[in-house]
Amino acid sequence: MRLLVFLILLFGPSPALLAAENFDLTPVKKWIARQDEVRTVQADFTQTRAFRALQSPVAIPGHLWFSAPQSLRWELGDPAKAILLRNGDTAYLIQPGKKRAERLPADHLGGRADSRNSAQAFAMMKMPLAKDYADFNRQFEVLAVSTQENRCHLEIIPRDASAKKMLTALKLDFDTTTGHLLTFEIALRDGSWLRNEFSNVRLNQKIERRVFDFDLAGYEIVEAK
């Protein structure tokens, strides 16, 4: 079966590739090509969560710091109720109120469909998203692309089968002028969704190294299940 899949990919375009050719992917290709220009990102965001268990969506403020290649601090709540720190292939989901930290391996996207998954999915996505368009195409299927003025809306889904079991789409809006993300949304198969809208975005400004540190002394540290 793997050999058959390999031959199909090698000698003929898949239906996903054929579908992608129907979109104008020019802004997406330009956006990916300039990702290496982004060395640091600082931003505020509002995360809106909609789940079947909730009568109406819930919005929570947050803050984001990123430094290339893979340092990330994602705070949810003000004051922060959850902090996700990533340095390389190691990430911790920290709950200051409970004095608890969960260590997440780089390939961990599982768990409940709650607010943690938004941070985890964002943290475990490669930044930049892909080294070039060919790399992007190997990782993702393009579901939709549309552009209005300087805003491009892109819907993709990972080609990885395990990700498809949980997700129906990753939806991103980015500014075609600056290249920074405007929104990032995760659509789950149970109908739930998590949407992050970014504001006050600052690119390539110096971030102190201490931002990506956290003193876990006295914290209960557990491994992600």
Q: Would you give an account of this structure?
A:
- Mean pLDDT is 81; it is low at 1-20 and 109-120.
- The chain has one domain: outer membrane lipoprotein receptor (LolB), chain A.
- The chain is of the alpha+beta class.
- The chain contains six helices and twelve strands.
Please describe the topology of this protein.
Elements: H1 2-11, H2 15-20, H3 26-33, E1 40-50, E2 58-67, E3 71-76, E4 82-87, E5 90-95, E6 100-105, H4 115-124, H5 133-139, E7 140-148, E8 151-158, H6 161-166, E9 167-175, E10 181-188, E11 193-203, E12 220-223
Parallel strand pairs: 6-12
Antiparallel strand pairs: 1-2, 1-11, 2-3, 3-4, 4-5, 5-6, 7-8, 8-9, 9-10, 10-11
Fourth-level CATH superfamily: Lipoprotein localisation LolA/LolB/LppX
Residue fraction in strands? 35-45%
Content-based structural category: alpha+beta
Count the domains. 1
Flag low-confidence runs: 1-20, 109-120
What is the total tally of β strands?
12
What is the CATH first-level class name?
Mainly Beta
List keywords for this structure.
outer membrane lipoprotein receptor (LolB), chain A; single chain; 12 strands; 225 residues; alpha+beta; 12-stranded mixed beta sheet; 6 helices; globular
